[in-house]
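Key result, reporting period 2: structure in, sequence out.
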C-alpha cells in the first residue's frame, strides 16, 4: 500500500515541491522517515503517531517508510507533520488519495490531533495558485492563504475535522480574508510633536519622497529617534503587489500577523547588539534577517557605531543590490532586501563633542575612534547626512509647528506619484533606485547646476557613487518642487546633505 501527498520546502522565498511518499509493507513494525530530513521532521513520527491515536486509529504492525522526494534536498520544519499523517491515512484507506492529489499540504500536528500554525503558508499558497492547485493549511492561517487568489483553501482545526470533510460528514467552508493591523501604528505620532529641528524635518521629507537613506548625527536628546519613528507616518502604504511581496517574507519568518496581510510598510529597529545573522539573515536554520524583514520599509539603526563592525559592513551589499545573499556550504539563499536605511548616532562616545562644558576629557580623540567604527564605503551609500543640533530651551516653549504629518504626507505622496509615472516601464519605483543612463537623463541639471556640481565634485572629492547620489537627491528635490528640470538650487541643497563628517570634525578641532 502506497500513497503520495504533495507539500513544499523553501529556499529563501522560493518554493520547491516535495512529494511525501508513504509505503506500508510486510516486515518488522517500524516507522522510518528518509529523504535528508532534519530533526524537526524526524520527530514527526511521534507527533503523527499520537495524533492518529487521538483520532482512534493505530498504525498497522507493519514496516512503514516515509520518503521525502527529492531525497537529496534538505528538508526542515514541522509543516511536514500533516502531509505525513494524511499519507498514512491514505495508505490505510481511511481517506481517498485521489481527493488529496490537488492539494499542497502544510501543518504541524499537536499530540491531540490539533493542526498548529507553521511558517510559509502564503508563499506556498501563491505557488499553488500558479500551479493551478489547492492548499490545505492550519485554520489560523486560512485567511492568509486566501490572499493568494482564486484557489480552494481547506483550513481545518484538527485532524478529525479534516477526515469528516473528506468523508462528506462536515464540509469545510472557504476561509475569509482578514486584513492585518499595522505592525507599528503611527496615527498618534505627529511631526508637530517635535519642537524646532526644521532642517531635520526637511531632510525627513526628502528621504520619504525619494526613498533615500538618511543619517542623523547629534547629541543625546536632540530628537533623532523621534524623527525616525515619525517617518512611517508620511510614507505611502504598500500597494497590492508590494503587500504580497512583503508578506511572503514575513510568512517565511513566522512574523506575519495571524490570518492577515502586511498593509503598512515594515519598521524594524533592531538593538545594537544584533549579530550579523540577525541583521543579514542566516543561522543554523537559515531565516530572513532584519534587512529582509524591512523589505520595502524602514530599517532603523539607532546608535550606529555601537553595532558589530562586521555586521555593519555586511549591510553594504544589500543596500546596493536590494538583496541579501546568504552563502553556506550546502546552500545559497537569497532574500529581497530593498530597504530605506535610517541611522542615528552621537558625534562621539560621550555625545557632547561640540559642547566644551559637557565633553569628556578625551575629546577630540574619542570622536575619531568612535567614528572609525563606520567605514567610508558604508557612509558613501547613505544619501543624506544631517547634523541635528540640540534643542534650545526657547524652542521647547514654542507652540506646535503649523505643519504636521498630514501636510508633509501630501507633498510626499505627490512626489511619489510623479516617480511612479516616470519609472512605470523601468522596473523600479523611486528615485533612490534610478541608475545608469536613465538617472543621467532625468537628473541632468541646467547649466548653472552643472557648473556647481562639477566644482563640488572636485572640491569634495566625491566618488562616482556619491556623484550619482547627489543627482538622485536633486531629482527628488525637483519632484517635491513640482518642476521637470533639476536646477542649481536643487544641486546646492543636495550637496549640503553630503558633508565629509569625519574630515569636518577634525578640521573643527584644528582651528
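The corresponding designed sequence is given below.
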Amino acid at each position: 500500500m502506497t500513497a503520495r501527498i504533495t507539500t513544499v520546502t523553501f529556499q529563501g522565498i522560493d518554493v520547491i515541491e516535495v512529494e511525501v511518499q508513504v509505503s506500508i509493507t510486510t516486515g518488522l513494525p517500524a516507522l522510518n522517515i528518509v529523504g535528508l530530513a532534519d530533526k524537526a521532521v524526524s520527530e514527526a513520527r511521534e507527533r503523527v503517531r499520537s495524533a492518529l491515536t487521538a483520532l482512534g486509529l493505530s498504525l498497522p504492525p507493519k514496516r512503514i517508510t516515509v520518503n521525502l522526494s527529492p531525497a537529496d534536498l534538505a528538508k526542515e520544519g514541522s509543516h511536514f507533520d500533516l502531509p505525513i499523517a494524511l499519507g498514512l491515512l491514505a495508505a490505510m484507506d481511511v481517506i481517498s488519495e485521489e481527493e488529496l492529489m490537488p492539494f499542497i499540504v502544510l501543518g504541524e500536528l499537536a499530540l491531540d490531533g490539533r493542526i498548529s500554525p507553521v511558517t510559509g503558508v502564503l508563499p506556498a499558497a501563491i505557488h499553488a495558485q500558479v500551479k493551478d492547485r489547492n492548499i490545505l493549511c492550519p485554520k489560523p492561517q486560512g485567511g492568509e492563504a486566501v490572499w493568494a487568489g482564486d484557489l480552494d483553501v481547506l483550513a481545518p482545526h484538527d485532524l478529525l475535522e479534516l477526515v469528516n470533510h473528506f468523508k462528506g460528514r462536515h464540509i469545510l467552508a472557504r476561509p475569509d480574508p482578514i486584513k492585518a493591523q499595522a505592525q507599528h501604528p503611527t496615527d498618534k505620532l505627529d511631526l508637530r510633536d517635535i519642537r524646532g529641528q526644521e532642517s531635520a524635518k526637511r531632510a525627513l521629507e526628502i528621504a520619504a519622497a525619494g526613498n533615500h537613506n538618511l543619517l542623523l548625527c547629534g547629541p543625546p536628546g536632540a530628537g533623532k529617534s523621534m524623527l525616525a519613528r515619525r517617518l512611517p507616518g508620511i510614507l505611502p502604504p504598500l500597494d497590492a503587489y508590494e503587500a504580497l511581496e512583503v508578506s511572503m517574507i514575513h510568512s517565511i519568518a513566522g512574523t506575519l500577523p495571524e490570518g492577515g496581510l502586511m498593509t503598512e510598510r515594515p519598521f524594524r529597529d533592531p538593538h545594537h547588539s544584533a549579530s550579523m545573522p540577525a541583521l543579514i539573515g542566516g543561522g543554523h536554520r537559515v531565516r530572513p534577517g532584519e534587512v529582509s524583514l524591512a523589505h520595502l520599509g524602514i530599517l532603523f539603526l539607532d546608535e550606529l557605531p555601537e553595532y558589530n563592525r562586521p555586521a555593519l559592513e555586511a549591510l553594504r551589499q544589500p543596500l546596493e543590490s536590494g538583496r541579501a545573499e546568504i552563502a553556506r556550504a550546502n546552500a545559497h539563499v537569497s532574500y529581497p532586501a530593498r530597504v530605506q536605511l535610517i541611522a542615528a548616532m552621537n558625534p562621539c562616545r560621550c555625545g557632547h563633542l561640540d559642547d566644551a562644558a559637557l565633553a569628556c576629557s578625551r575629546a577630540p580623540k574619542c570622536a575619531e575612534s568612535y567614528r572609525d567604527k563606520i567605514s567610508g564605503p558604508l557612509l558613501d551609500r547613505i544619501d543624506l547626512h544631517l547634523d541635528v543640533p540640540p534643542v534650545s530651551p526657547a524652542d521647547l516653549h514654542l507652540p506646535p509647528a503649523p505643519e504636521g504629518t498630514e501636510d508633509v504626507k501630501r507633498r510626499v505622496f505627490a512626489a511619489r506619484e510623479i516617480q511612479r509615472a516616470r519609472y512605470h516601464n523601468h522596473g523600479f519605483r523611486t528615485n533612490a533606485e534610478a541608475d545608469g543612463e536613465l538617472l543621467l537623463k532625468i537628473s541632468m541639471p541646467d547649466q548653472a547646476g552643472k557648473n556647481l556640481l562639477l566644482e563640488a565634485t572636485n572640491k569634495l572629492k566625491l566618488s562616482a557613487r556619491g556623484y550619482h547620489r547627489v543627482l538622485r537627491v536633486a531629482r527628488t528635490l525637483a519632484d517635491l518642487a513640482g518642476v521637470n528640470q533639476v536646477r542649481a538650487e536643487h544641486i546646492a541643497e543636495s550637496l549640503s546633505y553630503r558633508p565629509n563628517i569625519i574630515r569636518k570634525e577634525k578640521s573643527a578641532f584644528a582651528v
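Confidence is low (pLDDT under 50) at residues 501-511. The first strand starts at residue 2 and ends at 11. This case is discussed further under Risks and Mitigation.
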